[in-house]
């Protein structure tokens, strides 16, 4: 019984050294004299910030909220000067890692409404857009957790911006 208790006590002390006190001599990972672990997971040069080169949609027609089971759906409608615009999306003005959406310190989530124009040699690039049939519509789902930190949303196009309060 004494041997079992002593073995369990030693094993517990060794496991405790692997916890928050990772720099202690009790940590078995440090016994080989290896280099210390980095303090954070960010790469040395920082994360690469991808810059979206798509131009803003020239005219924003409307922005509205639609209810969802777990939050709200932001629906934005715009119009381009010609037919053929594609790959429309709402992107954050301030680069953020992954698909994270967080408001600025003032509580405003600032988005850009962007779309890729048609190729110059594309026949659609020469046809004017019809406001009835050629509207560009994008949607962005926001959960209640994301909406809790957002007081307003500002959507910027190429020629103007529109704001929505929660």
User: Could you name the ranges where pLDDT drops below 50 across 5 or more consecutive residues?
Assistant: none
| Largest sheet geometry | 4 strands, mixed
Structural domain tally: 2
β-strand percent reads 25-35%
User: What is the helical fraction, as a range of percent?
Assistant: 10-25%
Number of helices: 2
Please list the strands of the largest sheet in the order they lie side by side: 3-4-6-7
Structural overview:
The chain is mainly β. It has 2 domains: 1-30; 59-165, no CATH class. Helix content is 12%, strand content 32%. It contains 2 helices and 7 strands, in the order αβββββαββ. It has helices at residues 2-17, 144-147; strands at residues 59-68, 71-79, 86-92, 108-116, 136-143, 152-156, 161-165. Strands 3-4-6-7 form a 4-stranded mixed beta sheet, with no helix packed on it. A hairpin with a 2-residue loop joins β1 (59-68) and β2 (71-79). The mean pLDDT is 83.
Give the SSE layout.
Layout: H1 2-17, E1 59-68, E2 71-79, E3 86-92, E4 108-116, E5 136-143, H2 144-147, E6 152-156, E7 161-165
Parallel strand pairs: 4-6
Antiparallel strand pairs: 1-2, 2-5, 3-4, 6-7
Brief summary of the model shown:
This protein is mainly β. It is built from 2 helices and 7 strands. The protein folds into 2 domains: 1-30; 59-165, no CATH class.
Question: What would the keywords be for this entry?
Answer:
166 residues, 7 strands, 2 helices, 2 domains, three-stranded antiparallel sheet, elongated, mainly beta
């Amino acid at each position: 019984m004494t041997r079992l208790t002593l073995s369990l006590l030693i094993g517990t002390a060794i496991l405790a050294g692997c916890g928050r006190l990772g720099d202690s001599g009790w940590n078995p990972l440090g016994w080989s004299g290896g280099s210390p672990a980095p303090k954070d997971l960010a790469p040395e040069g920082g994360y690469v910030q991808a810059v979206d080169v798509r131009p803003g949609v020239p005219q924003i027609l409307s922005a509205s909220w639609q209810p969802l089971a777990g939050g709200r759906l932001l629906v934005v409608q715009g119009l381009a000067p010609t037919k053929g615009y594609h790959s429309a999306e709402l992107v954050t003005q301030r680069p953020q890692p992954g698909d994270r959406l967080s408001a600025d310190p003032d509580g405003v989530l600032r988005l850009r409404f962007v779309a890729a124009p048609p190729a110059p040699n594309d026949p659609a690039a020469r046809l004017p857009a019809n406001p009835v049939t050629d509207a560009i519509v994008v949607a962005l789902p926001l959960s209640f957790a994301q909406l809790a930190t957002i007081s307003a949303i500002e959507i910027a196009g190429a020629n103007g911006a529109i704001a929505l309060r929660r």
